Known about the structure:
The structure holds 2 protein chains of 2 kinds. Chain A is mainly α. Chain A has one domain (4-82). Chain A has helices at residues 4-14, 16-24, 28-53, 56-82. The radius of gyration of chain A is 15 Å and the shape is flat. Chain B is mainly α. Chain B has one domain (2-104). Chain B is built from 5 helices and no strands. Classes of the chains: A mainly alpha, B mainly alpha. At the A-B interface, helix 1, helix 2, helix 3 and helix 4 of A face helix 1, helix 2, helix 3 and helix 4 of B.
Amino acid sequence: MTNVWLEGAIALIIGLIPCGIVAFRGDSMNRLVGLEAATVVVVMAMMLLAEGYHRNFLFDLALMLALLSFGGGMVFARFLERWL
Amino acid sequence: MERVIHILMYAGVATALFSTVGVLVMRNVNDRLHYLGPPGTLSIVLIAAAIVLQEGASQFGTKAIVCALIVFVSNPVLTHATARAARVRQFGRWSEPEDQRKKAS
Protein backbone atom coordinates (compact mmCIF):
# COMPACT_ATOMS: atom_id res chain seq x y z
CA MET A 1 0.00 0.00 0.00
CA THR A 2 1.46 3.32 -1.02
CA ASN A 3 1.53 6.18 1.39
CA VAL A 4 0.43 9.39 -0.36
CA TRP A 5 2.01 11.57 2.31
CA LEU A 6 5.42 10.07 1.64
CA GLU A 7 4.88 10.45 -2.11
CA GLY A 8 4.21 14.14 -1.56
CA ALA A 9 7.26 14.46 0.67
CA ILE A 10 9.47 12.84 -1.97
CA ALA A 11 8.08 15.18 -4.63
CA LEU A 12 8.87 18.17 -2.43
CA ILE A 13 12.38 16.89 -1.75
CA ILE A 14 12.90 16.66 -5.52
CA GLY A 15 11.64 20.25 -5.65
CA LEU A 16 14.66 21.22 -3.56
CA ILE A 17 16.90 20.71 -6.61
CA PRO A 18 15.88 23.98 -8.37
CA CYS A 19 16.22 25.84 -5.06
CA GLY A 20 19.67 24.34 -4.60
CA ILE A 21 20.73 25.38 -8.09
CA VAL A 22 19.65 28.97 -7.37
CA ALA A 23 21.31 28.91 -3.95
CA PHE A 24 24.64 27.77 -5.39
CA ARG A 25 24.77 30.20 -8.32
CA GLY A 26 24.58 33.92 -8.89
CA ASP A 27 25.12 36.80 -6.49
CA SER A 28 24.33 36.79 -2.79
CA MET A 29 20.77 38.14 -3.09
CA ASN A 30 19.80 35.41 -5.53
CA ARG A 31 21.36 32.85 -3.21
CA LEU A 32 19.28 34.18 -0.32
CA VAL A 33 16.09 33.83 -2.38
CA GLY A 34 17.03 30.22 -3.17
CA LEU A 35 17.64 29.56 0.51
CA GLU A 36 14.29 31.03 1.53
CA ALA A 37 12.43 29.00 -1.10
CA ALA A 38 14.23 25.85 0.04
CA THR A 39 13.32 26.51 3.68
CA VAL A 40 9.59 26.73 2.98
CA VAL A 41 9.75 23.56 0.88
CA VAL A 42 11.62 21.71 3.65
CA VAL A 43 9.05 22.79 6.26
CA MET A 44 6.27 21.34 4.09
CA ALA A 45 8.27 18.17 3.42
CA MET A 46 8.81 17.71 7.18
CA MET A 47 5.08 18.08 7.78
CA LEU A 48 4.31 15.47 5.16
CA LEU A 49 6.99 13.12 6.52
CA ALA A 50 5.57 13.56 10.02
CA GLU A 51 2.12 12.64 8.77
CA GLY A 52 3.43 9.81 6.59
CA TYR A 53 5.46 8.14 9.35
CA HIS A 54 3.03 9.31 12.05
CA ARG A 55 5.87 10.70 14.17
CA ASN A 56 5.13 13.63 16.42
CA PHE A 57 8.69 14.88 16.77
CA LEU A 58 8.92 15.60 13.04
CA PHE A 59 6.15 18.15 13.47
CA ASP A 60 8.22 19.78 16.21
CA LEU A 61 11.18 19.94 13.83
CA ALA A 62 9.03 21.58 11.16
CA LEU A 63 7.76 24.05 13.73
CA MET A 64 11.25 24.95 14.92
CA LEU A 65 12.53 25.24 11.36
CA ALA A 66 9.68 27.60 10.47
CA LEU A 67 10.41 29.78 13.50
CA LEU A 68 14.18 29.85 13.22
CA SER A 69 14.28 30.31 9.45
CA PHE A 70 12.37 33.55 9.89
CA GLY A 71 15.02 34.92 12.23
CA GLY A 72 17.83 33.63 10.07
CA GLY A 73 16.36 35.09 6.90
CA MET A 74 15.85 38.49 8.52
CA VAL A 75 19.45 38.53 9.75
CA PHE A 76 20.71 37.61 6.28
CA ALA A 77 18.56 40.32 4.67
CA ARG A 78 19.75 42.95 7.14
CA PHE A 79 23.41 42.02 6.74
CA LEU A 80 23.15 42.01 2.96
CA GLU A 81 21.45 45.40 3.10
CA ARG A 82 23.97 47.08 5.38
CA TRP A 83 27.38 45.52 5.37
CA LEU A 84 27.93 42.78 2.83
CA MET B 1 -13.38 12.34 2.20
CA GLU B 2 -10.09 10.60 1.46
CA ARG B 3 -10.23 11.89 -2.10
CA VAL B 4 -10.60 15.47 -0.87
CA ILE B 5 -7.58 15.01 1.41
CA HIS B 6 -5.48 13.68 -1.47
CA ILE B 7 -6.55 16.50 -3.76
CA LEU B 8 -5.64 19.12 -1.15
CA MET B 9 -2.26 17.51 -0.48
CA TYR B 10 -1.33 17.09 -4.14
CA ALA B 11 -2.51 20.62 -4.96
CA GLY B 12 -0.21 21.98 -2.27
CA VAL B 13 2.72 19.91 -3.48
CA ALA B 14 2.13 20.86 -7.13
CA THR B 15 1.95 24.57 -6.29
CA ALA B 16 5.22 24.34 -4.37
CA LEU B 17 6.93 22.46 -7.21
CA PHE B 18 5.81 24.97 -9.85
CA SER B 19 7.04 27.79 -7.63
CA THR B 20 10.46 26.24 -7.21
CA VAL B 21 10.74 25.91 -10.99
CA GLY B 22 9.71 29.58 -11.23
CA VAL B 23 12.45 30.55 -8.78
CA LEU B 24 14.95 28.73 -10.99
CA VAL B 25 13.73 30.09 -14.33
CA MET B 26 13.38 33.78 -13.48
CA ARG B 27 16.29 36.07 -14.21
CA ASN B 28 16.67 38.56 -11.37
CA VAL B 29 15.98 38.80 -7.65
CA ASN B 30 12.74 40.75 -7.89
CA ASP B 31 11.23 38.31 -10.36
CA ARG B 32 12.32 35.37 -8.24
CA LEU B 33 10.84 36.87 -5.09
CA HIS B 34 7.36 36.65 -6.63
CA TYR B 35 7.65 32.87 -6.61
CA LEU B 36 8.23 32.75 -2.85
CA GLY B 37 4.61 33.73 -2.28
CA PRO B 38 2.66 30.63 -3.43
CA PRO B 39 4.50 28.01 -1.35
CA GLY B 40 4.50 30.22 1.75
CA THR B 41 0.80 31.03 1.60
CA LEU B 42 -1.16 28.65 -0.62
CA SER B 43 0.79 25.38 -0.45
CA ILE B 44 1.31 25.34 3.29
CA VAL B 45 -2.37 26.08 3.95
CA LEU B 46 -3.48 23.32 1.55
CA ILE B 47 -1.13 20.80 3.15
CA ALA B 48 -2.15 21.81 6.67
CA ALA B 49 -5.81 21.54 5.69
CA ALA B 50 -5.20 18.03 4.33
CA ILE B 51 -3.46 17.00 7.58
CA VAL B 52 -6.23 18.51 9.72
CA LEU B 53 -8.90 16.70 7.69
CA GLN B 54 -6.97 13.46 8.08
CA GLU B 55 -6.19 13.73 11.77
CA GLY B 56 -9.00 15.88 13.12
CA ALA B 57 -8.54 17.99 16.25
CA SER B 58 -5.58 15.99 17.53
CA GLN B 59 -2.05 17.04 18.42
CA PHE B 60 -1.00 16.46 14.81
CA GLY B 61 -3.75 18.68 13.48
CA THR B 62 -2.98 21.46 15.95
CA LYS B 63 0.73 21.40 15.17
CA ALA B 64 0.01 21.50 11.44
CA ILE B 65 -2.17 24.58 11.94
CA VAL B 66 0.48 26.32 14.08
CA CYS B 67 3.19 25.49 11.55
CA ALA B 68 1.10 26.82 8.66
CA LEU B 69 0.26 29.95 10.63
CA ILE B 70 3.91 30.71 11.38
CA VAL B 71 4.97 30.29 7.75
CA PHE B 72 1.90 32.17 6.50
CA VAL B 73 2.76 35.19 8.65
CA SER B 74 6.56 35.15 8.47
CA ASN B 75 7.06 34.41 4.77
CA PRO B 76 5.63 37.70 3.39
CA VAL B 77 7.63 39.67 5.98
CA LEU B 78 10.80 37.86 4.96
CA THR B 79 10.07 38.39 1.28
CA HIS B 80 9.55 42.09 1.90
CA ALA B 81 12.82 42.37 3.85
CA THR B 82 14.68 40.58 1.06
CA ALA B 83 13.18 42.85 -1.60
CA ARG B 84 14.13 45.89 0.44
CA ALA B 85 17.68 44.62 0.86
CA ALA B 86 17.93 43.97 -2.89
CA ARG B 87 16.70 47.47 -3.65
CA VAL B 88 19.12 49.11 -1.22
CA ARG B 89 22.01 47.11 -2.67
CA GLN B 90 21.05 48.12 -6.19
CA PHE B 91 20.19 51.81 -5.79
CA GLY B 92 21.55 52.75 -2.37
CA ARG B 93 19.59 54.15 0.55
CA TRP B 94 16.77 56.50 -0.29
CA SER B 95 15.73 59.51 1.71
CA GLU B 96 12.51 61.48 1.87
CA PRO B 97 12.29 64.45 -0.50
CA GLU B 98 13.02 67.77 1.23
CA ASP B 99 9.49 69.23 0.89
CA GLN B 100 7.82 66.12 2.41
CA ARG B 101 10.22 66.26 5.36
CA LYS B 102 9.30 69.90 6.00
CA LYS B 103 5.56 69.08 5.85
CA ALA B 104 5.98 66.27 8.35
CA SER B 105 7.81 68.51 10.78
